[in-house]
Q: What sequence folds into this?
């Protein structure tokens, strides 16, 4: 689904003071677009994602998904958090089904399909403690996909994983995106990941959080990380990222 973000101001109270976290974030996202967001720690990426998810409506401005103004969580938005948050006392299939009855044939079928999509066949009856971090994260993705959300919001979903597992899950996510029409918004601190997956990369700046640059990536999927044009775009994004980061050593050396 298409998304229209028009956030004029988002602030938090810090003791007696008010701290502006997001300032003038305007972004229109097409149906089926893959947006990646990268930016320094504390620039407001998670805050932005929570607003789009409808988990935070205390801000000036508006966010629209399709025709609906977002002010609470809805079936349009699926959310995958950085920590997977599975229920330890439920099996993989029960975690995916959530509060929907697995006994119903239609639900059963969907859950089985999702288990295949995230490549967890054979683990339907396993408990979270029997899974690796990457497997748990795949369960979380499957759970978010169950209600066929028009929008999937992912907040550093692979942040805690090793490079190998991370790459594997990038492939899984790419495949899901290519097979469905889901609009994706993925927050990451991995530059490579932002360029590998995004139709557009949003580079955010800090104090207050704002959009510093939007970089369109016209490379076809699946992308070749070693290709010179990939490397060139990666370099562009890196430069923007460095100039957005107040703590950047590279930037300080160049000043
Ligand atoms: N509930 C809250 N109450 C007060 N301040 C908050 C709250 N949530 C976030 N903040 C502040 O808002 C700013 C942005 O936080 P946010 O979590 O959105 O950053 P982020 O870009 O996701 O950072 P990271 O990359 O470290 O996850 C920070 O300064 C943080 O202290
Ligand atoms: Mg965050």
A:
């Amino acid at each position: 689904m298409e998304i229209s973000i028009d956030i004029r101001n988002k602030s938090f109270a810090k003791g007696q003071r008010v701290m502006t976290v997001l300032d003038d974030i305007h972004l229109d996202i097409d149906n089926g677009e893959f947006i990646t967001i990268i930016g320094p720690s504390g620039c407001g990426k998670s805050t932005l994602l929570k607003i789009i998810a409808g988990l935070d409506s205390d801000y000036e401005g508006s966010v629209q998904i399709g025709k609906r103004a977002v002010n609470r969580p809805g079936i349009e938005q699926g959310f995958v958090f950085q920590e997977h948050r599975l229920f330890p006392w439920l099996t993989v299939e029960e975690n995916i089904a959530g509060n929907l009855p697995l006994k119903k044939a239609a639900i059963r079928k969907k859950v089985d399909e999702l288990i295949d999509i995230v490549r967890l066949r054979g683990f339907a009856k396993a408990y979270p403690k029997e899974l690796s971090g990457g497997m748990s994260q795949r369960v979380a993705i499957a759970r978010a996909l169950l209600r066929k959300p028009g929008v999937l919001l992912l907040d550093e979903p692979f942040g805690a994983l090793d490079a190998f597992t991370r790459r594997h899950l990038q492939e899984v996510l790419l495949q899901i995106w290519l097979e469905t029409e889901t609009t994706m918004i993925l927050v990451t601190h991995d530059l490579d990941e932002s360029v590998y997956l995004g139709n557009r990369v949003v580079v955010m700046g800090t104090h207050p959080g704002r959009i510093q640059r939007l970089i369109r990536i016209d490379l076809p999927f699946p992308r070749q990380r070693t290709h010179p044009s990939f490397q060139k775009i990666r370099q562009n994004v890196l430069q923007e990222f460095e100039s957005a980061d107040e703590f950047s050593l590279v930037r300080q050396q160049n000043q």
Q: What stands out?
A: Residues 12, 21, 41-47 surround adenosine-5'-triphosphate (ligand 1) (CB under 6 Å).
